[in-house]
């Protein structure tokens, strides 16, 4: 198994006066079908202990990820997963859809009575901070989202325990959604490929065309 992530990087934020840190990661960004999902795991920088066996979700077996979900939820000060649908991705674009999914997760954390002081986001680009974006409906812009300082770190899911924990929550919840959708459209193999562009998935697309859960604004059959 890979080297275990720690809280060493997160603890650097104590010097700025932060106490509650939200580790955030996304899954499903590169899929052809299904939602993009964003997980949040909030930790107390002065209280949290290490949590055994947690790794970036991509490095764990299915059974291990699912076993860890209740442990991560119990370990976190607060946690949530937000989603943006394929239709929302088509309407808004992937970056705005990531922001929308992240905003939904962020608002769920706030609704639980927890307000993080700082965010640690996996990657090199801050797609989470609010921007004015069109609503899918006729009621104006989407609700304001994360207003805490956002810090990005490439491969944070590999080295930072809070972000690895968030990746597990997002991955397990999204995978469960794709398994449910597989029962409606079994030809696409979403129970296995989770909406990503495998050869079998693309062959099914050529034969049957897209479903309502495909991101039709994308070049679905591009190599």
Automatic annotation (TrEMBL):
Question: What species does this protein belong to?
Answer: Arthrobacter ginsengisoli
Q: Which UniProt keywords apply?
A: Cytoplasm, Endonuclease, Hydrolase, Manganese, Metal-binding, Nuclease
Q: Name one GO molecular function term.
A: RNA-DNA hybrid ribonuclease activity
**Which cellular compartments is it found in?**
Cytoplasm
What name goes with this protein?
Ribonuclease HII
Swiss-Prot/TrEMBL catalytic activity:
Endonucleolytic cleavage to 5'-phosphomonoester
Assigned protein family: Belongs to the RNase HII family.
EC number(s)? 3.1.26.4
UniProt domain RNase H type-2: residue ranges: 19-223
Keyword Metal-binding appears in the UniProt entry:
yes
Task: State its cofactor.
Answer: Mn(2+); Mg(2+)
- A Pfam family in this protein? RNase_HII
Its biological purpose: Endonuclease that specifically degrades the RNA of RNA-DNA hybrids.
Q: What Gene3D superfamilies does the record point to?
A: Ribonuclease H-like superfamily/Ribonuclease H
Gene for this protein?
rnhB
InterPro entries, from UniProt? Answer: RNase_HII (IPR022898), RNase_HII/HIII (IPR001352), RNase_HII/HIII_dom (IPR024567), RNaseH-like_sf (IPR012337), RNaseH_sf (IPR036397)
Which free-text remark accompanies the cofactor?
Manganese or magnesium. Binds 1 divalent metal ion per monomer in the absence of substrate. May bind a second metal ion after substrate binding.
Question: Which residues does the annotation say bind a divalent metal cation?
Answer: 25-26, 122
Class in the EC hierarchy, top level: hydrolase
């Amino acid at each position: 198994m890979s080297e275990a992530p720690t809280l060493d990087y997160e603890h650097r934020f104590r010097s700025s006066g932060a106490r509650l840190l939200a580790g955030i990661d996304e899954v499903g960004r590169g899929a052809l079908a299904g939602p993009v999902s964003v997980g949040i795991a909030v930790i107390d920088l002065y209280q949290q202990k290490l949590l055994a066996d947690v790794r970036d979700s991509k490095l764990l077996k299915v059974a291990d990820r699912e076993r860890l979900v209740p442990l991560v939820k119990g370990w976190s000060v607060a946690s949530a997963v937000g989603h943006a649908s394929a239709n929302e991705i088509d309407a808004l674009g992937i970056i705005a859809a990531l922001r929308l999914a992240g905003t939904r997760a962020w608002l769920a954390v706030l609704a639980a009575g927890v307000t993080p002081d700082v965010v640690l986001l996996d990657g090199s680009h801050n797609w989470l901070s609010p921007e004015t974006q069109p609503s899918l409906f006729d009621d104006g812009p989407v609700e304001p989202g994360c207003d805490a300082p956002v810090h990005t770190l490439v491969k944070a899911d590999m080295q930072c325990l809070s972000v690895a924990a968030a990746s597990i929550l997002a991955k397990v919840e999204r995978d469960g959604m794709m398994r449910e959708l597989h029962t409606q459209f079994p030809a696409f193999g979403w129970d296995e490929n989770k909406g990503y562009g495998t050869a079998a998935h693309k062959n099914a697309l050529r034969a049957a065309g897209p479903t309502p859960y495909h991101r039709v604004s994308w070049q679905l059959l591009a190599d």
